[in-house]
Amino acid sequence: MNTKISFRDVVKTYPMKDGVFTALDHVSLDIADREFVTVVGPSGCGKSTLMSMAAGLVEPGAGEVLVDGRPVTGPGPERGVIFQQYALFPWLTVRKNVEFGLKLMDLPPGERRRRAEHAIELVGLSDFADALPKTLSGGMKQRCAIARAYAVNPQVLLMDEPFGALDALTRVQLQDQLLDTWSKEQRTVMFITHDVDEAVYLARRVVVMAARPGRVQQVIDVDLPYPRTEEMRLSPEFGRIRNEVWHAVYHQPPAVPAA
Amino acid sequence: MTQLTAVGKPSEARAARRGAGRPRRALALNLIAVVAGLVVWTLLATVGVQGLPTPLEVAARAGELVADGTLPLDALASLRRVLLGFLLGTLLAVPIGFLMGWYATARGLLEPYVQFFRTIPPLAIIPLAIVLMGIGEVPKVFVIFLAAFLSSVVSTFQGVVDVDRTLINAARVLGASDRTIFAKVVVPASTPFILVGMRVGLGAAWGTLVAAELIAAQEGLGFRMQQAQLYYDLSTIFVGLIAIGVLGLLMDRLLLFAERRLTDWQERR
Q1: What pLDDT, in 10s, does the model give residues B11-26?
Q2: Domain count, chain A
Q3: Which chain B residue has the Cα nearest residue A81?
Q4: Which of A124, A190, B197, B236 can pair with B152 through a Cys bridge, CB separation 3.0 to 4.6 Å?
Q5: What's this model's pTM, rounded to 2 decimal places?
Q6: d(C-alpha A176, C-alpha A180), whole Å
Q7: Start and end of every ABC transporter domain (chain A) (predicted)?
Q8: Are B137 and B79 in contact (CB under 8 A)?
């Protein structure tokens, strides 16, 4: 399979009052085309920073980030981003939010409307297309944000703890919905989370990161077929993988001091 | 999803009930307070506080001033000054505030002046304005303009600075250029701040007006009160004060109404 996203020896440091904070310390990671990868790790491990680099919102200090073999120089509509805080434009209705990216593409109005309609339908918000974000629940807001990202038809979806602020029930519903749409319109997904269950349930591969300095600790394959089901979530095999990931996240050996 | 909407409903219904019940009660209390105030005023006047006219005498005087056209003309003259100064002030404040919020260079160049002049009450500029601009309309409008401008510019600037970074990032990742982000994200996101700034600016403009009119005006509410003071005409002074209060309140409510309409999308907690 072709490599879609490639992090090569990426370093990112931030100046601090006393010395520097190493957010990412020589991180290398390849994500294949149409692969679903989750990145999990303690706070401060640089997982969001890593994703922001693929999005083109943060520049690497050293090393390079490639998408389709070309270095990322800035954000672009072929890489959709979904933020934890939804980031909906509160003055626009659901439909207008979804059309925001489409309007920047110079599509004919009919085509624009059709694609927005399709994306809204995909996330099940058709009944709320003309509602303002303030009237929506957290789960509905995030689905609207997902529809906005889908509408411009990106090849890559970068998701930064998108379900982190939702209650457990809504989270499970949105996970299933996300997998459902992913199996219909396969895209490369890089999904950041701090929830081990979520990481295992969604991904083909779980990347476990460690903090201080931020680095890749372990990459764990999830040998469960798609579509993932509720039974699978309760299966011994799922439990085994979850334990492995859990162990990798919560029992990390201390960082080797940099020479 | 069905349960999500079902959960939403009771609280909405509660909010609606509260919305209907509260204003009626508040309105009744407001009315009681106004009536009580008038009664106290009447009592003070009849007990014989030196020279104090009763509400009825003031109302009669107001009737006379309306009948001979003085009050409408004065109010019109004052309103014209205030609206002219206020409009010029906000028209300049909004672009300047945007410039300061968006470009670090513009902020660096303009901020010392804005912050410095903000600490000077516009009324303190009056002597200078009269010396430089004479005693016509220009210095009055200028002082009002300054008051409105300084209030609006700071809140517009603050509004642009405070625009949520994730909204800007959300637009950028959808492929928006800087120009689009400015027009489609920064401007709408800072509208609530601008409107609050305009309300503060209007208040400042109105407050400055009367003082500006105390100096060398031929008409206007402030001028009329100044004249009445010379003739010990307390009723006219009261009419002027009440007219200023009522007009100020009306303008503020009008802007508040516009603000509510334009920023209805905000989540109010």
Answers
A1: 444 444 455 557 889 9
A2: 2
A3: B173
A4: B197
A5: 0.80
A6: 6
A7: 5-232
A8: no
Same domain, A109 and A60: no
Residue B116's identity, in one-letter code, is: F
- Mean pLDDT across B100-127: 89
CA of A79: which chain B residue's CA is closest?
B173
Q: Which residues on adjacent β-strands are paired with residue A30?
A: A6
Instruction: State whether A184 and A61 are in the same domain.
Output: yes
CB contact under 8 A, B4 and A132: no
Mean pLDDT of B176-200: 91
Check whether residue A100 and residue A219 sit in a common domain.
Answer: no
- pLDDT score, position A254: 67
Residues of chain A contacting B188 with CB distance shorter than 8 Å: 89, 91
In whole angstroms, what is the distance from residue B255 CA to residue B267 CA? 20
Do A74 and A99 belong together in one domain? no
**pLDDT higher than 90, residue B218:** no
Decide: B118 and B154 in contact? Cβ < 8 Å. yes
Q: What is the largest CA-CA distance in chain B?
A: 75
- Taking residues B101-106, what's their average pLDDT? 90
A166 and A131 in a single domain? The answer is: no
> Among candidates A96, A45, A86, A40, which has minimal Cα distance to A249?
A40
Q: Measure A131 CA to nearest chain B CA, in Å.
A: 10
Do A145 and A176 fall into the same domain?
Answer: no
Domain span at residue A122 reads 87-153
Cα dihedral across residues A109, A111, A114, A119: positive or negative: negative
Per-position DSSP letters for B1-69, written without gaps between them:
-HHHHHHHHHHHHHHHHHHHHHHHHHHHHHHHHHHHHHHHHHHHHHHT-TTPPPHHHHHHHHHHHHHTT
Q: Does the pLDDT of residue B117 top 70, yes or no?
A: yes
Residue A214 structure tokens? 């931020």
Mean pLDDT on B152-177: 92
Q: Which of A109, A134, A153 is the last residue of a domain?
A: A153
The C-alpha angle with vertex B10 and arms to B7 and B11, in degrees rounded to 5, equals 95
Q: How far is B185 from chain A (nearest CA, A)?
A: 8
Across the range B34-51, mean pLDDT stands at 87
Tell me, what amino acid is at A95? R
Distance CA B41, CA B29 (A): 18
pLDDT category of residue B176 using cuts at 50, 70 and 90? very high
Q: Strand, coil or helix: what is A13?
A: strand
Q: Supply the CATH number for residue A2's domain.
A: 3.40.50.300
- Residue A121 and residue B124: Cα distance in Å, rounded? 62
Report pLDDT for A255.
Answer: 61
